[in-house]
Amino acid sequence: MPSNRTLPELVCPAGNLPALKAAVDNGADTVYLGLKNNTNARNFAGLNFDATSAREGIRYARERGRHVLLAINTYAQGADIGRWRAAIDEAADLGVDAVIVADIGLMDYAARRHPDLRLHMSVQGSATNYEAINLAHELFGIRRAVLPRVLTLDQVRHVIENTAVEIEVFGFGSLCVMVEGRCLLSSYATGESPNTHGVCSPARFVRWEHGAESLDARLNGILIDRYRKDEAAGYPTLCKGRFQVADDTYYALEEPTSLNVMEMLPQLIEIGVAAIKVEGRQRSPAYTAQVTRALREALDAAGREGSRFTVRPGWQQALAKVSEGQQQTLGAYSRPWK
């Protein structure tokens, strides 16, 4: 029987204006974007929005009945906290539908300065239990929380059953071995943490070196990976590098893989998830279009078909073409032993 639950919002990434339009045109209910500075966790050169492009993106989405969220999801630094507060003020001025925030100091500032601005707790806030979420709701009026990708499906259900705050979960995209908001790994190599500077591997520290038979990827001089001429090269991040350990070379921390919860969509609908999020503001508009289209079709089918839902091969093939690494996983959602 079809589920009688409301379908979750499909929340898709917009690294730039073409990606925003691709997400909207291919069925996203909501898009999320960031500003051109380190207040957002995808602070790459050539990405993100200034005031002009943000207004154009909001106009484009609103004319088509979609919502826009602004990610201000890194942690403010004491010497320059004004930049993060200015980003909150800009969000209110732009009239976005909500701001995605990790730093509780910024939650406090937003709640006091802009009481009508809807707040979502970022995955970078690392709220893995309903007590933390309820506290943020009580103190700052948080309306939605994005859960870190470390909880099982039953644990997600437990959170939903014990909070009035909407719960958003990740449905597709790159995985990380770390708990979001707590990773300091890249700071050991570059001195810059992703939680404060917006990227795991800041581009100014990345170097590609072409050899006769290989391509070396380095981060601040450290060899992260060596690719054969016929091998697809990934962006150098420490946790997904291949390292020599006891005379063996392999992915010592984490092999690149993509989260894909398509087969679990009926269960996510049934437990009352409010939104399903796609990772990838750093990816291309083509990636955004392909993933959004496949998940839109799958989510609608899951809503109609309920327990009879089956994943169509074409959807999986579409997602496989843009997956990180060579494999896809249900991640922490599926842990039968727990």
Q: Using the coordinates shown, work out and report the CATH topology of the largest domain.
A: TIM Barrel
Order of helices and strands: EHEHEHEHEHEHEHHEEEEEEHEHHE
Low-confidence parts lasting 5 or more residues at pLDDT below 50?
none
Question: Helix fraction?
Answer: 25-40%
Question: What is the β-strand count?
Answer: 15
Query: Tell me about the biggest sheet?
Result: 8 strands, parallel, barrel
Secondary structural class? alpha/beta
Query: β content, as a range?
Result: 15-25%
Number of DSSP helices? 11
| Alpha carbon gap, first and last residue | 28 Å
Identify the CATH homologous superfamily of the largest domain.
Aldolase class I
Q: How many domains is the backbone divided into?
A: 2
Biggest sheet strand order reads 1-2-3-4-5-6-7-14
The gyration radius over C-alpha positions equals 20 Å
Shape: globular
Mean pLDDT across all amino acids: 91
User: What CATH architecture label of the largest domain applies?
Assistant: Alpha-Beta Barrel
